[in-house]
Amino acid sequence: MNITVQQGEIQKKAADVLVVNLFDGTRPSGASGAVDKAIGGQIAAAIDLGDFRGKSGETLLLYTQGRVPSPRVLVIGLGQAKDFDLEKARTAAGTAISALAHLGAKNAATILHGTGAGKLAVAAAAQAVAEASLLAAYRFDGYRAHDRSHPLKKLSVIEIDRGKLKEARQGIQRGNSIAEATCLARDLVNHPGGDATPAYLARTARRLAKSQGLRCQVLDEKGIKRLGMHALLAVGQGSANKPRFIALEHGPKSGAPLVFVGKGITFDSGGLSLKSVEGIRNMKTDMSGAAAVLGAMQAVAALGLKRRIVGLVAAAENMPSSTAFRPDDVLKTLAGKTIEIISTDAEGRLVLADALSYASRYKPAAVVDLATLTGACVTALGHHASGLFANDDRLATRLLNAGEITGERLWRLPLWPEYRQQINSEIADMKNSGGRPAGASTAAALLAEFADYPWAHLDIAGTAWSQNNKPYVPQGGVGLGVRLLTQLALDWSDKQ
Ligand code: BES
Ligand code: MN
Ligand code: ZN
Q: Which ligand is nearest to the CA of 376?
């Protein structure tokens, strides 16, 4: 889909569908007022009949019968003006895109949502429209015989005020880059584990490095062993698909970077602590943290951020076999600390332990890791927020703020010393499971042992996969974290 900005009055534009909007309980005004007038008051008539009121997500389809150049008008409800925010703008754009798919529309014209009474800045509103439109139109059809792509090829954003065009174009461009990066992450998550192996993630990283001008380093099994990342090595040793450690770097070669770390378990069978039939389903998604990091690296490069940003991915497949690591084994990590294995299914924290230690070499300003780490986090927060753990309040605040802006909400959970005690081992420095109580916090407590810098951990087990709960997030991989990390990086670049 190609999104452009044009100056003009929307009712005068020729497209398959004109998309305008309405706040809950209001009368047509501005663009919707002009369209309403041009089509004989049909919007007002629908409101008067009680057929439409402008609730968030509500739609009204009208036929113009030759009164204006476009045959259809789609009115999108924005909800109450006082509740309006970027998430509502994305919801409106996503709702429009779904409705346009049903109509088979190839081109459409829309306005920016909420720059008038909703008081959104033009660039932010434009970014929201571009982002949500592209994300709502996303389809994963790499494994289908027939094309099921969204019919919409051209979306024109119509702005009446010449003074706002430049800002609108900048916002659209930013939204475009971020949405593309999110779709890369979605593709990675949606690919089955049999195809998206650790080597596949490494190839993706190399391709990104080439296209975006990033520096890239990949360690194979030998390199991982030579370096002493025995925890990552152990998790991968049961699979024929050998582990990889990936480092991508953007921006200046020196200076304290912002580092992103992703859990890249390309399939989590549980290993010898094998999962159940239900538990193992969809464990191709266990590399969603890695996908977010790769996507975010693409976005920060495409946006040309001035800061040094590093993306690290610990990629392995967790499989049971005669070469697999086992319960009771004791692993020596890159940091030298040892971990007793209680369950081979608590593998994410093991690969992250080594990746977090590796991050130390950069003397980072801050490190954020993302991982589909625990079922316990899903139990605590469901699918509506990712768990946030941090050893640094300033970083936590920045992430919470980025979560509000992007709609990728976070909820902070505790990292108290008691959780660290829960993973004390009889024979090693720690054990890899603290049992059922506070499972998300004990996992984070293990990670905290390896983070000797300002650090935050996002448990995205409940949020990385969508059951179609937002108009701009179709069922499947969410690409969660790309928009969040990019927002954090933008904020970081502005302030430091
Ligand atoms: N990848 C899983 C966590 C997960 C569960 C992600 C559900 C997405 C949806 C992780 O590796 C895991 O198996 N965690 C165990 C830890 C336990 C053995 C201590 C869990 O949460 O049950
Ligand atoms: Mn597991
Ligand atoms: Zn896992």
A: 1
